[in-house]
Amino acid sequence: MATQAKRSRPGVVLIVFLLILAGLFTIMAATRTWGPKLGLDLQGGQTITLTATNKTVSLESLELARDIIRQRVDGLGVGEASVAVQGERHIVVSAPNVSRDDLVDLVGATAQLAFRRILQVGVGTGPASDPAGEDGTALPGLPVAPTPEAEDGEDPQQLGTAEAIGYQPTSEDLSYFESFACGDDTHDDPTRVLAACDATGSQKYLLGPTVIRGQELSTASFGVPQGELQYAVTLTFNGTGTQQMSELTGALVGQPEPNNMFAIVLDGVVESAATAQDRILNGEAIIRGGFTAESSAALANVLKFGALPLSFEPSQVETVSATLGGEQLRVGIIAGLIGLIFVALYAFIYYRAMGIVVVASVLVAGLATYAMMVLLGTTMGVALNLPGIAGAIVGIVMTADSFVIYFERIRDEIREGKSLKSALLSGWTKARGTIVISDAVQLLSAVVLFILAVGSVKGFAFMLGLTTILDLLVVFFFTKPMVELLGRTKFFGQGHKLSGLNAEHMGVSRDSLLGRRFRRATATPTTTPQEA
């Protein structure tokens, strides 16, 4: 027992845990973020209805577009977004914490990426426009110069790499480029030349057939490259794309300008015009262009999750009010507070002064949950919705249940003849397995629900899982050391009648509770010689 008591340092454990909790709030203060990111039902947001403009729309392509849009929205940290197929050609997107224009731009981007040789460079005449054609076909009346047909065995939507690199502009190409103005309708047929402008419309380019398509892209990331000051988007290609990039840059190195340049074209707009100074062998390319952190993240996100299989136009965009959600939140908070008050009253009535442990544990679990929601909302875009609040309340109340398991184990140990001091330690040893198993089952349920659920139900599952993990931490590093510390005080350790650890409440005698062993004096009859 002496060795066990020496190793047990509940005060140190309790202080370290409270310092970590204080550290979470310190981070909140440093970032000046005191409230969690709210979901659509609590904060309001935007709802956009996208209508497919293609002549034929299959259910498979519509569902694929839905999944890509959901990945795009989630990739930007827009928590609790809802993306659903409606009817035969509509997708409805609802998202909080995002502006109307940003949502329209994000979900409507087609992300058709291509690498093309630059054949000619001219002065632009105005702002560039997105491609107006569908499915890569030329628009009616648009002067597009013909290019060689793909040979047998080649992809009809892609010329051979060497053929695309070696293409020379014809007189019709040059005439077309001369008459082209930024803002004119264009196309993105990979087998034809393309006239396009940069995003500002200050320069226009005559581009050769596509050498590398977006399908060869493996990943896209954003950041500030080493030694630079502005954000850029880094592209990494697969094996085929790496070989094509090597052939393209190898053919351009040493050529006079602009024949030594290639363009990175996104949705018919030249995002970057790069000079091939060396042959690129590692399959990486960087798009530069005065990006901010937000714009580079948006571009990388769109490229990473791929192009939409259909063309969409926003048929309806509306603002969602949070009035109803705010009223439900107010009622829910009131109901939760009433429930916690009843829990506290029950704890003090049944456990008497030990109810302090129940109330303190629940409060600490609530503070930890709130801090985690604020920080997760800031760093990962996790948003709190009404189902999430319900999941948090359920999870936090589990902290009280864990104390009940611990207390009943202490009572069982005392009834088996152990002293209060010993029961506090041995009771925890037997209770912790039950607590871990109980929380593990609840955590598994939350994980399964999160995987299978859609929409706002995921918020309930996420908060339930988060609070379950926090319950384990609170019970191990707050509840248990707090009970052990209280047991060392005179009020609790000697079983005061208001402590909740008194002999009557435990169902044993006071001597048994305190571990005292009294030997009753037995009178031994003696005789005197006279009596004998």
Automatic annotation (TrEMBL):
Record domain SecDF P1 head subdomain: where: 201-309
InterPro entries xref list: SecD (IPR005791), SecD/SecF_arch_bac (IPR022813), SecD_1st (IPR048631), SecD_SecF_C (IPR048634), SecD_SecF_C_bact (IPR055344), SecDF_P1_head (IPR054384)
Coiled-coil annotated residue ranges, if any: none
Region (Disordered): 124-156
Compartments where located: Cell membrane
Domain Protein translocase subunit SecDF P1 residue range list: 65-117
Keywords in alphabetical order: Cell membrane, Membrane, Protein transport, Translocation, Transmembrane, Transmembrane helix, Transport
Pfam families referenced in this protein's UniProt entry, alphabetically: SecD_1st, SecD_SecF_C, SecDF_P1_head
Ranges of residues in domain Protein export membrane protein SecD/SecF C-terminal: 312-487
Transmembrane stretches, start-end: 329-349, 356-377, 389-410, 431-454, 460-478
Topological relation to the membrane, as annotated: Multi-pass membrane protein
Its biological purpose: Part of the Sec protein translocase complex. Interacts with the SecYEG preprotein conducting channel. SecDF uses the proton motive force (PMF) to complete protein translocation after the ATP-dependent function of SecA.
Family: Belongs to the SecD/SecF family. SecD subfamily.
Subunit: Forms a complex with SecF. Part of the essential Sec protein translocation apparatus which comprises SecA, SecYEG and auxiliary proteins SecDF. Other proteins may also be involved.
PANTHER family assigned to the protein according to its UniProt record, in alphabetical order: PROTEIN TRANSLOCASE SUBUNIT SECD (PTHR30081:SF1), PROTEIN-EXPORT MEMBRANE PROTEIN SEC (PTHR30081)
NCBIfam families per record: 2A0604s01, secD
HAMAP family membership: SecD_B
Protein name, entry field: Protein translocase subunit SecD
Source organism: Tessaracoccus lubricantis
